[in-house]
Please model this.
Amino acid sequence: MPLALLALAVGAFGIGTTEFVMMGLLPDVADDLDISIPAAGHLVSAYALGVVIGAPLLAALTARMPRRTVLISLMALFVAGNALSAFAPGNGSLLAARFLSGLPHGAFFGVGAVVATAMVPPERKARSVSLMFLGLTVANIAGVPVATLMGQHLGWRATFLGVSAIGVAAIASLALLIPHDGKHEAASTGLRGELAALRSVPVWLALGTTVAGFGALFAAYSYVTPMLTDTAGYAETNVTLLLALFGVGATAGNLLGGRLADHSLRGTLFGGLASLGVVLLLFPLLMRSEWSAALAVTLLGTAAFITGSPLQLMVMEKAAAAPSLASSANQAAFNLANAGGAWIGGLALAAGFGTTSPALAGAALAVLGLGVASVAYAVDRRRGAPSVGRVIAGRVPEESGAALHR
Model:
């Protein structure tokens, strides 16, 4: 695999760290800024809103720019947002800084996926995307716990300065390792061509699969702490270690999904969604003891992230002539899944169905994801569309710019 994928993984590591670290810093931020915990929780929402808005907007606005330049610029915006977060004097300015930090998130992964697939042979494209996402999953194992400890001992502002430093390292890596793609400017379809990709029904079906599939994950994961403490009997002090197990599972699932998807993208997607549904259905049973609860958390990460690379590539295949915007929109769909899944899981809890009921709600969403994916497959068959693997192997690299192949 090209060493340039390491640069994308470093950027993904920084993004994953800043996205999830705020959850662990909420009490410290609330105390320092003299606001309530719920008010501090809006900082999480501000980041997610930045992702949803920034992903398609920045991808569309940078459609004619060389992708190497786009990636470096997006990471510079990321550094600026986190630096401003570190020096924010109050809650309002911190909200704005968190929104700014989220803007480049989706576009970086979207454009990065196109660059990653253009640097490898057709039979390794899913693995190239999974290696970029590796930075995101490893962030849950190492980046978030270390950044949280830094914030608790040195102050939450030090955490965002540390994340800014990761961003600077990512910029240096991108500038050093990502090949120039100057010819892309002439070959690009531009803003109009990128926007046209979102008019396709198959693209929306692919995005809908992402929302439902990852909504299944977040319906359960958003409430995994009370499941572990109230049902499995873990002490709150052990929850951080158990969440690291989720990161281990997510890393394994991400790498496994990338390898399997290079052989059968659609089969990997269906298998991953089915596995996720089964794991979530078993959650009420697995949460009855400590050892099985730890296994459940690990399996949840594995099953969910098996689908990460296949979903990203499927969206790119459906918009093969202009994949950057659709690929970035998939990251916005991921964050919509985060918010929507948490809301649906919360409804199950509020209805009094029990602590593990969000997992059952997630299982229903996984079934919905399978249904949407099946409809997408049926539409492809009716239209006589080529298989996902063949399109990814052909049109996407051509549009991505042969200058990236080395």
User: Anything to note?
Assistant: The two ends are 11 Å apart (CA to CA). The chain has 17 helices and no strands.
